Amino acid sequence: MIPVLSIVGSSDCGKTTLLENLIRELSGRGYKVGTIKHDVHG
Length: 42
Fold this sequence. Notes:
Layout: H1 15-28
């Protein structure tokens, strides 16, 4: 089974920064990483 992770939080709390760092780390360890950014505003 493929692991799925969801990051949720209020505006300007560091979600994107966290994911950028996590993606870099996991990719560096050889994991294949895919992302979808969903913005409900607007």
